């Protein structure tokens, strides 16, 4: 049994995801989406602390969303220069369209009226005006996962991205559907590790929360 397990592990692909650190939008309860919001001072400090406590610069491949809050987190946590980071638009945050930059009380003024579904602790917008639907986001997450698993099979990947995108990426790996995975509450700097076998089946999943208060800016 041990030999079989060792052989399986030898061909496994390792995928570790990290959600970016805190931003000012989180403190103000604004929706960030595709807006290029930098880290807050607290986010910078926590990223540096995570980097000093964990050795996250030993992965074969480090991938980041192009948005500065993800890329800055990547640099601070891993210590890598931007030239050593693979920047992939495919793992950027969900496009919330006209909802971006607004406080919750102003979203009710938008037309068409935003509809929501409650999953887990939060209400999730189904039709952000001029934004990205959940089925479209799921399709993007699945394509991103397929591409990186094909390109970096058998290697250890470290991916820095965003709450709503990571919900769909994790849901794909965990066998959860497009809406079920919205209950996955991913905090700032939370790490999730997945091991996938040669047939892209999940071998193992571990979760390591970090921030005490989740950033609800999305």
Task: Fill in the keyword field for this structure.
alpha/beta; Rossmann fold; six-stranded mixed beta sheet; two-stranded antiparallel sheet; 8 strands; globular; disordered N terminus
Summarize the model shown.
The protein is α/β, with parallel strands linked by helices. Helix content is 33%, strand content 18%. The strands form two sheets. A six-stranded mixed sheet has the order 3-2-6-1-7-8. It has a two-stranded antiparallel sheet with strand order 4-5.
Task: Determine the oligomeric state from the structure.
Answer: single chain
Number of strands: 8
Structural class: alpha/beta
Termini gap: 44 Å
Largest sheet, described in full? Answer: 6 strands, mixed
Examine the coordinates and then state which fold CATH places here, giving the name of the CATH topology.
Rossmann fold
Mind telling me the CATH superfamily name? Phosphoglycerate mutase-like
- Rounded mean pLDDT is 91
Describe the structure.
The relative contact order is 0.22. The chain has a single domain (2-208), classed as 3-Layer(aba) Sandwich (Rossmann fold). The termini are far apart. With 218 residues, it is an alpha/beta fold. The protein has helices spanning 2-10, 24-28, 41-53, 68-78, 104-107, 134-151, 163-174, and strands spanning 13-19, 61-64, 86-87, 116-119, 122-125, 156-161, 191-196, 202-208. The protein has a six-stranded mixed beta sheet with strand order 3-2-6-1-7-8. Strands 4-5 form a two-stranded antiparallel ribbon.
């Amino acid at each position: 049994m041990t030999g079989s397990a060792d052989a399986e592990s030898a061909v496994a692909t390792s995928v570790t995801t990290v959600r970016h650190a805190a931003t000012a939008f989180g403190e103000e309860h604004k929706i960030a989406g595709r807006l290029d919001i930098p880290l807050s001072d607290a986010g910078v400090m926590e990223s540096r602390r995570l980097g000093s406590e964990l050795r996250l610069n030993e992965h074969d491949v480090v991938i980041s969303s192009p948005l500065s809050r993800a890329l800055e987190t990547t640099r601070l946590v891993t210590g890598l220069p931007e030239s050593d980071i693979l920047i992939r638009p495919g793992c950027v945050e969900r496009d919330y369209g006209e909802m971006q930059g607004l406080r919750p009380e102003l979203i009710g003024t938008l037309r068409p009226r935003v509809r929501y579904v409650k999953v887990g602790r939060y209400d999730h917008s189904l039709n952000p005006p001029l934004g990205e639907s959940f089925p479209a986001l799921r399709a993007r997450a699945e394509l991103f996962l397929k591409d990186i698993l094909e390109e970096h099979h058998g290697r250890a990947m470290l991916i820095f991205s965003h709450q709503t995108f990571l919900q769909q990426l994790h849901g794909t790996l965990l066998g959860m559907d497009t809406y079920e995975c919205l209950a996955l509450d991913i905090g700032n700097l939370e790490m999730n590790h997945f091991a996938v076998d040669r047939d892209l089946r999940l071998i193992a999943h571990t979760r390591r929360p970090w921030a005490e208060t989740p950033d609800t800016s999305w």
